[in-house]
Amino acid sequence: MISDQIIACLTQWQGGLPAIAVESWGGLIGGRTARISCENTIWMHAQLAEIDWFTIPVYGEQADASAWVIVQHADYDRPLQRNVLARLERLVTSGDTAGRNVAYLFDRLAVADGRPQRYGTQVRCAAGQWQIIGGAESERDLDGGRPPWALPTWARYVGQFGPCR
């Protein structure tokens, strides 16, 4: 059963690739990375059937961050990302998850959906400036209206990336 789930997941990763690329997929680094990501995602589904989340008070900051990384990079499983975002939004105000988890996952889904970002975490370098991919819901909120659990101001956030070239 797990093998079937991994194959189905890998098929989603391979969608749109030329036939020759699909044939050699397993031998490529992308294939190995995809397999690990799929295995992690399947594992995450099983865990979330048993627990609400890897909350900081129960499992610690490292477990919270590690579980978030699995979900954040499961771009082939948007329902999982949406499910986890709803859980994290509920848990963040009590300190049960890190605020950055909510900010990054919200913005990743916004970019995928073609919506403006709320926190400005997904950026690109264009014309020598850091730009928010897809724009922001409110430019004003990026520097002054963020919840206390969110990231620093947008200017400070992109400042850590260094010059945009």
How would you sum up this structure, described in words?
Strands 1-2 form a two-stranded antiparallel sheet. Helix 5 (61-72) runs parallel beside helix 7 (99-113) and helix 6 (78-91) packs antiparallel against helix 7 (99-113). The chain has two domains: 1-50, no CATH class; 52-165. The chain is globular and about 45 Å long. 59% of the residues lie in helices and 5% in strands. It has helices at 2-14, 19-24, 29-50, 56-59, 61-72, 78-91, 99-113, 139-143, 154-159, and strands at 123-126, 129-132. It contains nine helices and two strands, in the order H-H-H-H-H-H-H-E-E-H-H. The model has no long low-confidence stretch (mean pLDDT 84). It has 165 residues and is mainly alpha-helical.
List the helices and strands and how they pair.
Blueprint: H1 2-14, H2 19-24, H3 29-50, H4 56-59, H5 61-72, H6 78-91, H7 99-113, E1 123-126, E2 129-132, H8 139-143, H9 154-159
Antiparallel strand pairs: 1-2
Helix pairs in contact: 1-3, 5-7, 6-7
In short:
Helices cover 59% and strands 5% of the residues. Strands 1-2 form a two-stranded antiparallel ribbon.
Task: List the keywords.
single chain, 165 residues, mainly alpha, 2 domains, two-stranded antiparallel sheet, 2 strands, 59% helix
